[in-house]
Amino acid sequence: MKDGHVIVKKEQRAYKTVYRDWYTTGIQKMDHNYHLINEGILTKQDFNILFESENGKKYIPVETTDSLYIYSNVIMSGNFFDFMNQVGLNVSFINKYGEKIGSFVPNNSRRNIKTELKQLRMYDSEKERLDMARRLEIASVSNIRANLRYYQRRKNATELGAAVKDMTDIITKLNEARDINHMMMLEAQARQKYYGCFNSILEGKQFYFDKRTRRPPQDPLNAMISFGNTLLYQRIANEINRTSLDIRIGIVHAAGNRPESLNLDLADLFKPILVDRTIFTLVNRKMINVNDFVEVENNGIYLNNRAKKIFISEYENKLYQKVTFDGAERTYDYLIKNEIQKLKKYIENGEKYKPYKYV
């Protein structure tokens, strides 16, 4: 670490155990997380989970599993969620558009009233919340700028250089902003300019970015952005739910009727490096093509099962890419967990909080 920033070395990947028959069974293990793409039935089998599909049976050992991610129509037996609660597993449900539709969080949560009250006091303090929001927003735009610089060095595109300057200007304005709504407007401007650079980063003619669309996404690139963002939101949500922090109480994103806010704040720090780079890799290496997407009646576009499998694999590879952090080789998965712990220490003990910045 130098001047509070993470120093990134040449890419080194720590590949985790992956089922070799992933493309036929529709189930993938990456580290302690399982992704279920195909339709099937989930049941408790002794002290394991059994997933049955038209391609056969696969056992999921609960003692080495943290989370399940389900992307298709899956039937659960009557005692399945009792078992999930007993063993403390999170289950996330994601629809065909890459949007989270629900989750199961075990009731053995580590939340405690003292931490929740401190979160609420921080949220209710206009000065403190504004200071924390400024830190997060500046770090988020800084990471967008760093990603643009990364590709500027490789593409030598004039547009990318101009966008880097735009991000620097927006960071200056964030330092001067007097309310969170203004900060969010500035961040939205930064992301709009950033998305406008995608066509300078993408190679080939199959994929073209026009504008950001969602609910549902209107083209393949937006489908991948929505899908990748959901993966990141839920990974961070699962980690937050393993701590005493209350995920409903955000900092930048207002706490209201939304069931999750804090994970959205932290995800913005990692989107450029994890989600966007996954997309650029898949497109530029021709790992995904326009035939890997499906259009439905309401003009929405989503990834087919093949594309979801490929996306998840590359996304998880990025998640376990190693960087030098505090003098040690760490993965982005570690950095996410560390970010949550830093925020927790700030809220509980008042330790200084510096959001993650990629350089």
TrEMBL record:
Entry superkingdom: Bacteria
Cofactor(s) the protein needs: Mg(2+); Mn(2+)
One Pfam family this sequence matches: Cas_Cas1
InterPro entries, alphabetized: CRISPR-assoc_Cas1 (IPR002729), CRISPR-assoc_Cas1_C (IPR042206), CRISPR-assoc_Cas1_HMARI/TNEAP (IPR019858), CRISPR-assoc_Cas1_N (IPR042211)
Keyword Metal-binding on entry: yes
Entry keyword set: Antiviral defense, DNA-binding, Endonuclease, Hydrolase, Magnesium, Manganese, Metal-binding, Nuclease
Presence of the UniProt keyword Ribosomal protein in the record: no
EC number(s) per entry: 3.1.-.-
Coiled coil (UniProt feature): none
GO terms for biological process, alphabetical: defense response to virus; maintenance of CRISPR repeat elements
Sequence positions that bind Mn(2+): E187, H253, D268
Gene Ontology molecular function: DNA binding; DNA endonuclease activity; hydrolase activity; metal ion binding
Broad class of enzyme this protein falls into: hydrolase
Primary role: CRISPR (clustered regularly interspaced short palindromic repeat), is an adaptive immune system that provides protection against mobile genetic elements (viruses, transposable elements and conjugative plasmids). CRISPR clusters contain spacers, sequences complementary to antecedent mobile elements, and target invading nucleic acids. CRISPR clusters are transcribed and processed into CRISPR RNA (crRNA). Acts as a dsDNA endonuclease. Involved in the integration of spacer DNA into the CRISPR cassette.
PANTHER family: CRISPR-ASSOCIATED ENDONUCLEASE CAS1
Subunit structure: Homodimer, forms a heterotetramer with a Cas2 homodimer.
HAMAP family: Cas1
Family stated for the protein in its record: Belongs to the CRISPR-associated endonuclease Cas1 family.
Name of the featured protein: CRISPR-associated endonuclease Cas1
